[in-house]
């Protein structure tokens, strides 16, 4: 383990920021360009994870365990979200035989 | 008595309130008692007040009583108090308003007895008396203006008393609008007075004005505006056409408002402000010219009218023209003297005409009358007296007052006198024409009317008799020196006009000249009386029916010089066209377009913007991303 | 040191694969790989317990749930709805703009560029447990209620509507 930890030393915090931003942006793009509800939810997971990683990086950088605790909470939240979200997807599929997000456009003027 | 001054206007106001509220519940007798009683009480107090003023004058005082009741309002430096001023001028005016007012109230009890609006009528009459008293009593221009507007309102209400008749209602509107034009002049004058003198109190304004130079341009403006106000209220050219139309109202109203009191308010106001007018000779000349022109035009029209009340109405306009002529040549006393005598004989003539109309079952066309002498003896005699008085045959009242004005006119400019004499010719002719057509010859009405002919009840004849006595004796108030009189009225009113007399050229005519002038005018009147007698009694001539071929001059007079048509063409139609333009172009397309445009702008923009609410979640997220970018950019660039 | 860049590259690559693959099942699998690289990142950051939890919960539970649902609905490449090209381009451009804005923001706030020196013990269960049950006790209990509620909700939503049928 020790060697691995040493490996990480010398990575600037800035690089973590950039890396996580890229992942987050990929998540956003995924939400924007896909119509499959499940893939959109997966993109959201991607975004959540990028934030998780950043929190962990800050935690390590500041030597403060709170950041990692936040990650736990986010994970719990993500689990709840996915459970409810997927349940809704199943209901939608049952009713419309489709998981196209654009078919859910009844809520408008 | 001085403590009771406030009761004079208040009692008629109370009468108005009681009658107005109880018009549908109180019995007619009670309404009549309240209505007449209120005015009678005011009259009695006025007599007492007059005697007090008179005593003071005898003792050498100026007869002024000033009563300040409360400060109405104070704005900046302007302080307007609610206060009354009693002086010789207003005390006489009080007597006329309440005295003749009472007689006409009494007359109305019988005249209006069959009318549904009995209570309403008396309420309006009392209200009118209230406002007229306020106008007369006010010690500043603002109180006067309240009364001024109030009598205009009452005039409107009473002309349109039978408002269910459309033409009567429009006559009322016409009167109101014409009065408003004049009132605007008055109001502007009040503002200018305020600006120039810093006060509206008569005493302050006049004492300051005394120090100003003659022909001051501000004074000229003020007096011209005041005169516009007066010409609206007192029916002078060019605002006189409302008065003949005002005959749509009940006859007592015509007698009270449109002959004896309200229409003389303009003269009263100018006489009150005499110092201002004396100091602006241009206005005086204008008043004289307008006065004589009105007198001539109205008399000319009156010659051919067939409606008994229309003749009297034009006669009133003509006599008012005389009064303005008097004011214009500086004969303030003479003009006011004519106001008094005119109030007597014109009220008498109107009430007599009312009596005739009453007897003839509401027939007003003289062509359908005639021979009423026997059926209506009292009316006939009193009307005869009134006619002689107005025609200016001595020794009745009209002769003295008219002669005084004419003498002053001669002194100022013989041409004015000549024109005045011409108007006097006309006056004598149309009045005797009226008398002969109505009371002489054979009856020309229907059988039903003939069987119904009757002398009026005492409530109507008593006022006639009293007024007739006044019309005979009224001239004695101011007998000129040339006739060994003592000019009582002139000396009584002296303090009111003292300042003006100090400035103006003193009036002087030799007694011989005065005798000649009197003789000429008296002879003229008598000659016209005889001429009319030959024409209408001996030759039994009857005015031609409508549509018959008539001479050009006759037609011109009969059609009232086409003045109404002229006003219609010059003012009403362009106004209508302008209104239509404003309605169709400005209002419909511009303003409505603007308002509707704002509405449809939001409708359309709403339609456009709601496309954003597409229901596509992706689109919302896309927008959200853009929003996040925008917010972050803002934070980056501006923090 | 270069391990980080290598793993980061892998993460980005598989993330891109996740969103650009047409077949949803493949997408899920790519996402699983992405999350695996994240686990590696956690280890590199000396957050051992997080790495384990991420491995078990995310990769194991959540992603399997996704896969399970996908297969339940019998979705594959043929039924996949695709957006038009212009929408794709616009979405990509917007995402790129967001990224550029982020990077700009980082430049402005000037993050301390010192290297990370992970503390050896901070990511251990003992350490985390103490923080979690001392400082964050109430949020922890609340999140347990949240999970319970979500479970009930999911069951209620997804079960067949027997009442109406």
TrEMBL record, chain A:
One of its GO terms (cellular component) is NADH dehydrogenase complex. InterPro entries: NADH_UbQ_OxRdtase_chain4L/K, NUOK/Mnh_C1-like. One of its GO terms (molecular function) is NADH dehydrogenase (quinone) (non-electrogenic) activity. GO terms for biological process: ATP synthesis coupled electron transport. Its main location: membrane. It is a multi-pass membrane protein. The chain crosses the membrane at residues 16-34, 46-63, 69-93. It comes from the Bacteria. Keywords: Cell membrane, Membrane, NAD, Quinone, Translocase, Transmembrane, Transmembrane helix, Transport. Its EC number is 7.1.1.-. It is an enzyme of class 7 (translocase). NCBIfam families: PRK05715.1-2, PRK05715.1-3, PRK05715.1-5. PANTHER family: NADH-UBIQUINONE OXIDOREDUCTASE CHAIN 4L, NADH-UBIQUINONE OXIDOREDUCTASE SUBUNIT ND4L. NDH-1 is composed of 14 different subunits. Subunits NuoA, H, J, K, L, M, N constitute the membrane sector of the complex. This is NADH-quinone oxidoreductase subunit K.
From TrEMBL, chain B:
It is a multi-pass membrane protein. Keywords: Membrane, Transmembrane, Transmembrane helix. Residues 140-427 form the NADH:quinone oxidoreductase/Mrp antiporter transmembrane domain. InterPro entries: NADHpl_OxRdtase_5_subgr, ND/Mrp_TM, NU5C-like, Proton_antipo_N. One of its GO terms (molecular function) is NADH dehydrogenase activity. The keyword Transmembrane applies. The chain crosses the membrane at residues 30-49, 92-109, 121-139, 145-163, 184-206, 218-241, 253-271, 283-304, 311-329, 335-357, 378-396, 416-439, 460-479, 515-533, 617-637. One of its GO terms (biological process) is electron transport coupled proton transport. It is found in: Endomembrane system; Membrane. Pfam families: Proton_antipo_M, Proton_antipo_N. Its main location: membrane. Residues 72-122 form the NADH-Ubiquinone oxidoreductase (complex I) chain 5 N-terminal domain. GO terms for cellular component: endomembrane system; membrane. The keyword Membrane applies. This is NADH-quinone oxidoreductase subunit L.
UniProtKB/TrEMBL annotation, chain C:
The chain crosses the membrane at residues 6-21, 28-45, 51-73, 85-109, 136-158. It catalyses: a quinone + NADH + 5 H(+)(in) = a quinol + NAD(+) + 4 H(+)(out). GO terms for molecular function: NADH dehydrogenase (ubiquinone) activity; quinone binding. Its EC number is 7.1.1.-. It is a multi-pass membrane protein. Pfam families: Oxidored_q3. It is an enzyme of class 7 (translocase). It is found in: Cell membrane. GO terms for cellular component: plasma membrane. Its main location: membrane. Keywords: Cell membrane, Membrane, NAD, Quinone, Transmembrane, Transmembrane helix. NDH-1 shuttles electrons from NADH, via FMN and iron-sulfur (Fe-S) centers, to quinones in the respiratory chain. Couples the redox reaction to proton translocation (for every two electrons transferred, four hydrogen ions are translocated across the cytoplasmic membrane), and thus conserves the redox energy in a proton gradient. Belongs to the complex I subunit 6 family. This is NADH-quinone oxidoreductase subunit J. It comes from Sphingobacterium hungaricum.
